[in-house]
Amino acid sequence: MTRFSRLQIHLHWVTLLLIALVYAAMELRGWFPRSSFAFSAMRTLHYNAGVAVWVLMFIRIGLKHKYKTPAIVPTPPRWQHHLATLTHIVLYVTFLALPLLGIAMMAYGDNEWSLMGLTVSPFVTPDDDTQFLLKDIHETLANLGYVLIALHAGAALFHHYIQRDNTLLRMMPGKSDTSQTH
């Protein structure tokens, strides 16, 4: 097996697309007045895409345990393998924690919001101090997400163009190995 399963590959790229939507909605909503439809639409997109990322991350973790990770050829140095493992763990933890922090922030802020078309009412006692703390953590972690995404993409390109191994090719869509069924 020289590549990840088709399902893993597709979910990787769908996750990237959703993360891009989350960040774009977050950045673009500031262009609109708070009371505008566009601001509300960006906010709703941010929430819904964030929760979708959260769900996909759990599915991807399950698939990571179901399928064997294809080997990198030629084999990189051990320190690169350890650094990649650490970076992946931090990426997963970050994109699992961000939606939870966002939901908690909304709840403590006494905000009613929409998730996948359903209205979610606050479910905890509102607390401005807790909301602001959660907001700071959420925003800091989201900014770390930019760095992690850049490191992840940069490492894939480094492996492809400098080390000339199959790291990037293992996750590229296209014709799948015949040994894979999904």
From TrEMBL:
Membrane topology: Multi-pass membrane protein
Subcellular compartments: Cell membrane
Coiled-coil spans in chain: none
Alphabetized PANTHER family for the sequence: CYTOCHROME B561, CYTOCHROME B561 HOMOLOG 1
Keyword presence, Ligase: no
Main location (coarse class): membrane
Similarity comment: Belongs to the cytochrome b561 family.
Residues spanning the membrane: 7-25, 45-63, 83-108, 144-162
Key word Iron present: yes
Taxon lineage: Bacteria, Pseudomonadati, Pseudomonadota, Gammaproteobacteria, Enterobacterales
Name of the molecule in the record: Cytochrome b561
This protein's UniProt keywords: Cell membrane, Electron transport, Heme, Iron, Membrane, Metal-binding, Transmembrane, Transmembrane helix, Transport
Pfam family name, one: Ni_hydr_CYTB
Domain annotation Cytochrome b561 bacterial/Ni-hydrogenase: ranges: 3-174
Required cofactor(s): heme b
InterPro entries tied to this protein: Cyt_b561_bac/Ni-Hgenase, Cytochrome_b561_oxidase, Di-haem_cyt_TM
